[in-house]
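Worked Example 4.2. Consider the chain below.
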Amino acid sequence: MEKYNALYAQSGGVTAVINATACGVIQTARNNKDKIGTLFAARNGILGVLNEDLIDTGGESDQDIAALRHTPSSAFGSCRYKLGSIEKNREQYERLLDVFSAHHIRYFFYNGGGDSQDTAYKVSQLSRELNYPITCIGVPKTIDNDLPFTDNSPGFGSVAKYVAVSILEASLDVAAMASSSTKIFLLEVMGRHSGWIAAAGGLAAQQTGEPPHIILFPEIPFQSEPFLARVQHCVTQYGYCSIVVSEGVRNPDGSFIAESGLVDAFGHKQLGGAAPVVAKLIKNNLGHKYHWAVADYLQRSARHLASKTDVEQAYAMGKAAVEFALAGKNAVLPIIVREKGLHYRWTVGEAPLEKVANVEVALPRDYITEDGFGITPACRQYLSPLIQGEDYPPYVNGLPHYVKLQNKPVAKKLALTSMGKVG
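Applying the procedure from the previous section yields the following structure tokens:
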């Protein structure tokens, strides 16, 4: 059997466990040296492919590759870049084909969220559209937990754990000071269109009255009067009010309450900070002293607080991607399947890339309480298994010890096209 090379790339916002997926891909490829030659990584996602900026992962030691499992961020760099249609952007796809052909690449693994799976699907069509034999497997990742088919998305469980722990600990701080100082605390979390991350904050409340007292979801239009009434009720009842705010909270007309007017490379509207907007509303109407924080990059890079379940699932998705490719599958995405039963168990399944690309799954309405300010028992039952277990990185001199790969570049074989350097 003739051996061909493979290429792995990471895309979109990074997570605490995307490198665990990379570890799964690389270790599984190394365990199949009789079928896969060199495993390259593209520097900065699909841009690295277009620019022929490749890395030979074979230059990394087994020890360093194993250390990826406990290292956050993206070991090879990521990007936000979406390929257009083959019909309108044929030159880009011909460039991909040239790079694949020059380096004898027949397997491509693209690790990312919904927009990235759109790219993965388009690459998978090279075989049909441009008559090049490429096997393309998507690999799931997104902290937003909004991919279809899969029970949950690798990266989400660790963010969920971080947000739940953070709002729990910050709320204890506020409660201690509330009688004479701050009475309102707001934690803004990610989630442009879906409230999965915000909902995870609700796990901190084990009993009625425990924080967070209010969660603001993108799925529930923001109404100031009932919100302010609830804030005042909490301050009166508990002495303080702890709030989780999704960055994607919307006004009744559908506009983001924190819309900045800018868009990112995928065309998504950039958000300018929902927590300060809500905090100012409380101050102006109720007069309470407040503090707010934005979890921002902290929530998606907090490997020291990662969910063990999430780490194991992230690794399994990388491993499955390589196994799928070697089994002759193409244009599919490995997914997590939750098995039925009283105890949480999961297996690996698959979904077609064509149906995954550009589809976002919102938080179900029955996961949100009737008043729109909390999570239901059904939501808690879904979320709780995803944050279970600790998987601490090794510590050296009191700090997590994370690996930094050599990432030695592969010699280029092609000249830049008329496109020039992309990105």
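The chain has 14 helices and 15 strands. The domain at 156-300+365-387 is CATH 3.40.50.460 (Rossmann fold). Compare this with Example 4.1 before moving on.
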